[in-house]
Specification:
Number of strands of chain B: 13
CATH topology of chain A: Nucleotidyltransferase, domain 5
Number of domains of chain B: 2
CATH superfamily of chain A: Dinitrogenase iron-molybdenum cofactor biosynthesis domain
Chains: A alpha/beta, B alpha/beta, C alpha/beta
Shape of chain A: globular
Strand order of the largest sheet of chain A: 3-2-1-4-5
CATH topology of the largest domain in chain B: Rossmann fold
Largest sheet of chain B: 9 strands, mixed
Largest sheet of chain A: 5 strands, mixed
Helix content of chain B: 25-40%
Oligomer: heterotrimer
Distance between the termini of chain A: 38 Å
Number of helices of chain A: 3
Number of strands of chain A: 5
Number of domains of chain A: 1
Structural class of chain A: alpha/beta
Strand content of chain A: 15-25%
CATH superfamily of the largest domain in chain B: P-loop containing nucleotide triphosphate hydrolases
CATH architecture of the largest domain in chain B: 3-Layer(aba) Sandwich
Shape of chain B: elongated
Radius of gyration of chain B: 23 Å
Helix content of chain A: 10-25%
Largest interface: B-C, 47 and 52 residues
Distance between the termini of chain B: 16 Å
Strand order of the largest sheet of chain B: 3-8-9-2-10-1-11-12-13
Strand content of chain B: 15-25%
CATH class of chain A: Alpha Beta
CATH class of the largest domain in chain B: Alpha Beta
Radius of gyration of chain A: 13 Å
């Protein structure tokens, strides 16, 4: 199982990025190998639809779980259609969030916000 | 950063007047103008020692290299935005171009490429320990939502974590408003007693609720139509929204603003009402960030 | 008492850089003060003209734009469309293609590129264009469906309906692409401005826009009161003709808050707006020396 987390810095001790679509990086943690790696979010600078493009990139990385504070409705549609489970992040480090998820302590993400998606 | 956003729905109800008075009363160290289509807050905030400006880019737009263009007309045929201007050599009208890249795909001569297009400027003003973030859009440009997000991000990057920021919002209920509401602790909606302002108020309340942003309401120029002002107050009561007060129509407001005077420093019926409103808003705000 | 404009072909666009300056108030009253006129509401996001005219609707037409539709059986998930879309309106998942219509600009590129021919263009409603009548005024408006992002195609459709005679166009606020579209066919731009430094700042923006597209224009100073008027100062220092002024007036403000048309409610206001219309007609007369 691959877990994705939007992050500010390429470091497991750092905080989770508040924004999903405009996060500079994603941390991808593979539970089988217990290895983590960081990918650049190529959608971060898109004038519109960043969340969709970011979600597309994560789907292409075969993730099965996402931990985030917030998620736009369009990105949620992409992830939901790909049967990716979405969880609400805690105000703690990336590593602590992943541990909490694996211990079943993270709630499912309930609030989906209307994104600022228009490229107009 | 804790954020109070001043909004209105309908334009011209007095957002900027209320915001600028709040900034002076609270001696806010951090504030921003999120109305990037028609920014006004800078007109009443005095001069700043330091100004830092940076370019803001929207979607890249098509450019035709005249030397390579063979005038085959294919770009003209595919463009849905009337952005290709035919002639002995073709060119692109950058105002009409939406950056879809279709013309680039069909050009057999490789004469078309996409160039970053400046869509506006982000501005960061500082004065002693005060920070003011604002922006301007180039005429006819889009992408306002993203620019609003950048205005707020720029402010956040430059202030302390616990700082209280006051944000002047934009009119309407569209994309820039949604961007300005994001992450806000309290949205104060400045309405006025008219049929159109009331209907816009209802729409902005549902937008804010959708984003889980707590709202409070004030009615400006309430004495223009007291019956409607009462209806707005009743509506708020029924919806469980704090109704924080009424501001009278007051000619002194226009006079003070035009002299560059902040309402915080004058005594008039409207400025007294805004001062009371400020105390109430702060009370609501403090309860919200404590919980 | 009504201004006779028989036989005059003239299109007047009423605009302002900020909301709340009185665009709709001025537009509906100017149209009502003429012996016959058309009113066109181009504020497709918040069309308020109907609150005043309460028109009997004669015709209503749905305006559609082309959008891609996918045949999921033909899509092989190649990502060509999603990689090419500049607006990120497409997402390719394991077994399906998602299309985000509110992001789509209807450019047609994805349909052109799809190697499987899995995408076709279908017409989707963007909003409605209405035609109606209210007294001596023929009424036209367009309303965008909530959730859509660009009203430009609606304004284009509305402009195709433009009737003969005197036409008053109530523009959207601001100086963006929708305003540019709304004034494209105007002979003259009437800029409505408030007596504040905010009003003057936004007046400068729309003045610049009118100059940019090469339209003659003049300013109507609205809500004037005692003391300085920065909008007036701007007009004087920038050679912007002042067409007239409307002093702040509690009765006029009250009627407007209730959705009433002052020039229909009282002879006094009918005269005020008939006089104003005459000034506008003179200023916009291409043969005048003014």
């Amino acid at each position: 199982m691959i877990i994705a987390v939007p992050v500010e810095e390429k470091n497991l001790g750092s905080a989770i990025c508040i924004s999903f679509g405009r996060a500079p990086y994603y941390c991808l943690y593979d539970t089988e190998t217990q290895q983590s790696r960081f990918i650049v979010n190529s959608a971060a600078d898109s004038p519109g639809g960043a969340g969709i493009q970011a979600a597309q990139n994560l789907v292409d990385e075969n993730i099965s779980t996402l931990i985030t504070f917030r998620l736009g409705e369009n990105a949620a549609k992409v992830l939901d259609a790909s049967e990716i489970s979405m969880h609400k992040a805690l105000n703690a480090s990336i590593a602590d969030n992943i541990t909490a998820l694996l211990e079943g302590k993270l709630n499912p993400l309930d609030a989906i916000h209307a994104g600022f998606h228009h490229g107009h | 950063m804790h954020q109070i956003l001043i909004l209105s729905g309908k334009g011209g109800t007095g957002k900027t007047t209320v915001a600028s008075t709040f900034i002076a009363l609270s001696k806010a160290k951090a504030y921003a103008d999120c109305d990037v289509d028609a920014p006004n807050l800078h007109l009443v905030m005095g001069s700043f020692e330091n100004k830092k400006e940076s370019d803001y880019y929207g979607l890249p737009k098509a450019v035709i290299d005249y030397a390579l263009c063979i005038a085959c007309n294919q770009c003209f045929e595919v463009c849905r935005f009337d952005a290709v201007v035919p002639g002995p050599t073709y060119h692109i009208n950058p105002v009409a171009c939406e950056g879809c890249t279709f013309c680039q795909y069909v050009c057999p001569a490789n004469a078309i490429h996409m160039e970053p297009a400046k869509a506006g400027e982000l501005k960061l003003f500082t004065r002693e320990d005060e920070i003011f973030s604002t922006a301007t859009l180039i005429m006819g440009s889009g992408n306002t939502g993203k620019l609003v997000t950048e205005v707020k991000q720029q402010l956040k990057n430059n202030v302390q974590e616990n700082e209280i920021a006051i944000l002047d919002g934009s009119p309407g209920i569209g994309c820039p408003v949604i961007a300005s509401l994001s992450g806000v602790d309290l949205a104060l909606i400045v309405s006025e007693p008219s049929v159109s302002a009331f209907s816009d108020l209802k729409r902005i309340i549902s937008s804010a609720r959708h984003l889980q942003v707590p709202v409070a309401v004030v009615v400006n120029k309430y004495d223009m139509q007291e019956r409607l002002a009462e209806q707005i107050a009743e509506y708020c009561f029924k919806e469980g929204i704090p109704f924080l007060g009424k501001i009278p129509y007051d000619e002194a407001v226009v006079k003070a603003l035009n002299l560059g005077k902040n309402l915080a420093w004058i005594n008039s019926p409207a400025s007294d009402a805004i001062k009371q409103l400020y105390d109430k808003t702060l009370q609501v705000f403090k309860e919200l960030i404590r919980s | 008492m009504q201004a006779s404009i028989m036989g005059t072909e003239r299109t007047i666009a009423v605009l302002s850089g900020k909301g709340g300056t009185g665009k709709t108030l001025v537009s509906v009253n100017l149209a009502s003060a003429a012996s016959s006129a058309a009113y066109m509401d181009c504020d497709v996001e918040e069309p308020n003209g109907q609150l005043f005219f309460r028109p009997a609707v004669i015709d209503e037409k749905v305006i559609a734009v082309g959008r891609p539709a996918v045949d999921q059986k033909l899509c092989n998930g190649c990502h060509i469309c999603s990689n090419a879309c500049a607006f990120n309106a497409l997402a390719v998942l394991k077994d399906q293609l998602l299309i985000f219509e509110e992001l789509c600009h209807s450019c047609g590129l994805c349909i052109h590129l799809c190697p499987q021919r899995a995408l076709t263009e279908v017409q989707k409603p963007l909003g409605v264009v209405r035609k109606g009548s209210s007294g001596t005024v023929s009424f036209f408006s367009a309303e965008m469906h909530i959730g859509e992002s660009s009203g430009v195609p609606l304004i284009k459709a509305l402009m195709k309906q433009k009737p003969a005679g005197l036409v008053v166009i109530d523009c959207p606020p601001g100086s963006g692409c929708m305003v540019t579209e709304s004034i494209a066919k105007a002979d003259f731009c009437l800029l409505v401005s408030e007596p504040t430094i905010f009003g003057a700042h936004n007046l400068a923006m729309v003045h610049e826009l009118a100059n940019l597209v090469g339209k003659p224009c003049g300013v109507l100073l609205n809500k004037t009161q005692e003391g300085s008027n920065p909008s007036e100062d701007y007009a004087r220092t920038h050679n912007l003709p002042i067409i007239g002024s409307l002093p702040y007036d509690k009765d006029l403000a009250r009627m407007t808050t209730e959705g009433l048309i002052a020039s229909r409610e009282s002879n006094c206001y009918r005269q005020v707006f008939a006089d104003l219309l005459k000034e506008v007609m003179d200023a916009s007369d291409p043969d005048s020396k003014r």
